[in-house]
């Protein structure tokens, strides 16, 4: 089975996924004036670790970049994707003004952990980028029907019916945690950056850090901060 991109950073092992409070769905928080004063280059920011290996939508030369830390089992992440996320994809991303980068952060319900293992296993395959986003959307759309006992069976059925990937191979890799190194890279980046809830959104403009927001993040919050 050919693998791409993530294969370079996926390491064998079963490192713990960590436990943080998350999906609090409360107030939006940010670094505000302090972040703007610092103007940390994106390449120097902790969320940029292995950034080129992450699933992303939009042009690589877009003037603005958003890096999201999301858990497919998190209801607040689902709300973000249904509202702000959908509008970002159909608006600034489609227009070439924004690059949207996804990092997984399974810290809420137990099924999120095998779910993100499947996401990484799908993404690592040839042609897996489209499959990643399709499965990502499926998890949020089916969130209330998924649990730790059925998530991989339902994932296999979904991939078999909706993608060209070897669905059984993806599930075998997810069960073996074959891409746990990629999952852990996201968790390490988030922990270093102080992510303690999902979603947490990091915003960059013209190659430099602007601010972050967590919880019920609106479309307007992001577009205003990034001047989109």
What do you see in this structure?
InterPro entries: TAT_signal, Thioredoxin-like_fold, Thioredoxin-like_sf. It comes from Halobaculum halobium. Pfam families: Thioredoxin_4 (PF13462). By secondary structure, the protein is an alpha+beta fold. It has one domain (25-225): Glutaredoxin, CATH 3.40.30.10. The protein is 41% helix and 13% strand. The chain has 8 helices and 5 strands. It has a 5-stranded mixed β-sheet, with helices on both faces. Strand 4 and strand 5 (208-214) form a beta hairpin. Helix 3 (112-123) packs antiparallel against helix 4 and helix 3 crosses helix 6. The radius of gyration is 16 Å and the shape is globular. It starts with 31 loop residues before the first helix and ends with a helix. The model is unreliable at 1-22, 25-30 and 32-37 (pLDDT under 50).
Concise synopsis of the structure shown:
This is DsbA family protein. The chain is an alpha+beta fold and 228 residues long.
